């Protein structure tokens, strides 16, 4: 048994190429919310590979389907596509979320299981010369149980 994770579509907004004056610039305005739902997480499920035979924590990692264009910046996918930008994720404290790196789900209680939310945000990040076009990508969330 495992948590289920519905697909999450994140409207990033529309921006002009001039909204990104230099490499490293982030999209202006509020960051787009990325609330990943973990539904029906197991409680007290036996797991012979974990401490005491029970699940004590849930970890997640987010991997960009098209790879990265800079450290922790997801590459855009699709054709045609904008160039010179990628997407960066941030944790609730505003720190850059390390991509493809396990993170612990905050608040998970193995004695009760239940539903949890991973509250992240996203912004476009300039990586080079920006050209206009669709700026989409997909990312995969992988859960592991400890």
Helix-strand layout with pairing:
Blueprint: E1 32-41, E2 58-64, E3 68-70, E4 73-74, E5 83-90, E6 103-104, E7 114-131, E8 139-145
Antiparallel strand pairs: 1-7, 2-6, 2-8, 3-4, 5-7
Domain Fimbrial-type adhesion: 5-146
Protein name: Type 1 fimbrial protein
Pfam family, one: Fimbrial
From the N-terminal CA to the C-terminal CA, the straight-line distance is 13 Å
Unreliable residue stretches: none
Task: Compute the number of helices.
Answer: 0
Shape: elongated
What's the story with the biggest beta sheet?
3 strands, antiparallel
Give the topology string: H per helix, E per strand: EEEEEEEE
Number of DSSP strand runs: 8
Q: Give the strand order of the largest sheet, numbering strands 1, 2, ... along the chain.
A: 1-7-5
GO cellular component, one term: pilus
Pfam families: Fimbrial
Domain Fimbrial-type adhesion: 5-146
Keywords: Signal
Summarize the structure.
This is Type 1 fimbrial protein. The chain has 146 residues and is mainly beta.
Task: Report what the structure shows.
- This protein has 146 residues and is mainly beta.
- It is 0% helix and 39% strand.
- The chain has no helices and 8 strands.
- The protein has strands at 32-41, 58-64, 68-70, 73-74, 83-90, 103-104, 114-131, 139-145.
- A 3-stranded antiparallel beta sheet has the order 1-7-5, with no helix packed on it. Strands 6-2-8 form a 3-stranded antiparallel beta sheet, with no helix packed on it. A two-stranded antiparallel ribbon has the order 3-4.
- Strand 3 (68-70) and strand 4 form a beta hairpin.
- It is elongated and about 50 Å long.
- The mean pLDDT is 92.
């Amino acid at each position: 048994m495992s948590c289920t994770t519905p697909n999450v579509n994140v409207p990033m907004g529309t921006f002009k190429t001039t909204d990104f004056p230099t490499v490293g610039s982030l999209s202006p305005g509020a960051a787009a919310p990325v609330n990943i739902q973990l539904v029906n997480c197991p409680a007290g499920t036996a797991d012979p590979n974990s401490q005491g035979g029970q699940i004590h924590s849930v970890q997640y990692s987010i991997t960009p389907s098209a790879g990265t264009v800079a450290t922790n910046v997801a590459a855009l996918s699709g054709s045609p596509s904008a160039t010179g930008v990628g997407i960066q994720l941030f944790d609730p404290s505003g720190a850059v979320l390390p991509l493809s790196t396990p993170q612990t789900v905050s608040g998970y209680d193995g004695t009760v299981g239940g539903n949890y939310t991973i509250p992240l945000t996203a912004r476009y990040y300039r990586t080079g010369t920006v050209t206009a076009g669709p700026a989409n990508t997909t990312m995969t969330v992988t859960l592991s149980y400890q």
